[in-house]
Design brief:
With 156 residues, the chain is α+β, with helices and mostly antiparallel strands. It is built from 5 helices and 3 strands; from the N terminus they run αβββαααα. The protein folds into 2 domains: 110 residues, no CATH class; 30 residues, no CATH class. It is 44% helix and 15% strand. A 3-stranded antiparallel beta sheet has the order 1-2-3, covered by helices on one side.
């Protein structure tokens, strides 16, 4: 099956996508919004339904052959490298905007509860997400076929 990326040819600026995410969150009742970045990732966080939620958006590696080389294997000039990298960043922000909007609409439509839809991204009191706190126990259960008691999840 051929793969393609949602919005792979988008011209929508990353800042416009972040603004769209914020407007969407407000429209669906979020009470707080935060955004930050570092070279390898960006983050959005928000509070909705009395829950803190965080999404980490991995950024592509600027030195990847996807950006330094053409599809035919020739070295791209620096401007073309930058353009290709920025296109990949725009695509990721469009995809995140789609994910957030779809999750919020699924909740608003009664398809799922807020907790069901955002569970993996909810922030626990120790700063980790539910995913980060439970992935070890889930992996262990898949490897061993034994599901540990709920109280042991995340305690290693």
């Amino acid at each position: 099956m051929a793969t393609s990326q949602y919005a792979q040819n988008t011209t929508v600026d990353s800042g416009a996508s972040r603004n769209e995410i914020e407007r969407t969150l407000v429209r669906y009742g979020a009470t707080s919004f935060a955004y930050g970045w570092q070279d390898s990732a960006a983050m959005i966080g928000f509070v909705a339904n009395s829950r803190q939620v965080r999404f980490i958006l991995p950024m592509p590696d600027r030195t990847s052959r996807d950006f330094t080389m053409t599809p035919t294997g020739k070295t791209r000039v620096p401007k073309a490298q930058q353009d290709a990298y920025e296109q990949a960043v725009r695509q990721r922000w469009r995809a995140l905007a789609l994910v957030v909007k779809a999750k919020l609409e699924a909740v608003a439509s009664g398809i799922v509860s807020f907790d069901e839809e955002f569970y993996a991204h909810m922030i626990l009191p120790d700063g980790r997400t539910v995913y980060q706190a439970t992935i070890g126990a889930v992996e262990q259960a898949h490897e061993t076929g034994v599901v540990p008691p709920l109280l042991q999840i995340g305690t290693r």
